[in-house]
Amino acid sequence: MANTQKPLILTVLLYVKSGKFEQFQAYETQAAQVMEDYGGKIDRVIRPVSMAGEKFPLPDEIHLVSFPCERDFERYKLDPRMSELKSLRQEAIANTIVIVGTERELYG
Predict the structure, then answer these.
(1) How many Å apart are CA 55 and CA 37, to the nearest integer?
(2) Cβ-Cβ contacts under 8 Å for 94 (sequence gap 6 or more)
(3) Are strands 93-102 and 61-67 parallel, antiparallel or unpaired?
(4) Looking at residue 39, what DSSP letter applies?
(5) Cα–Cα distance between 76 and 78 in angstroms, integer?
(6) Are 55 and 28 a contacting pair, CB within 8 Å?
(7) Among 27-31, 44-48, 65-69, 104-108, whose mean pLDDT is lowest?
């Protein structure tokens, strides 16, 4: 990842294990609390209903997450509380795809 002080925008596709949505919500709630200590926040939660094309399975949730900069995101990932949440995460989440980017000006 490039070393940037620009705000990071993460697009996170989350696949929840069958019957584990309650554990997923518990994990996400606790992870969001840790995230706040590094200036991060979940800006939007989307429940997808369909996907154009069939290259990827439909995720259960899509989160748009922001951090002030890459350094804060890296510090969040290394926080010992996230290690403590690892077993809950493994119990609830089958797969995660994270797309990291920075915001650009709108077209038009």
Answers:
(1) 36
(2) 15, 16, 17
(3) unpaired
(4) T
(5) 5
(6) no
(7) 104-108
Strand-pair partners of 42: 65
Q: Which of 17, 12, 32 is CA-nearest to residue 94?
A: 17
The pair of three-digit structure tokens given for residue 20, joined into one six-digit string: 């584990």
Extract the tokens encoding 73. 């995101």
Name the 3-class secondary structure at 60. Answer: coil
| Spatial distance between the Cα atoms of 91 and 87, rounded to a whole number of angstroms | 6
Distance CA 75, CA 93 (A): 22
Angle at 43 between CA 28 and CA 20, to 5 degrees: 25
pTM above 0.85, yes or no: yes
DSSP 8-state class, residue 68: S
Please give the full DSSP string across 47-58, using - where no structure is assigned: -----SSSSSPP
* pLDDT tens for each residue of 43-80: 999 999 998 887 888 999 999 999 999 999 999 999 99
Residue that is written with structure tokens 């094309």 in the block: 53
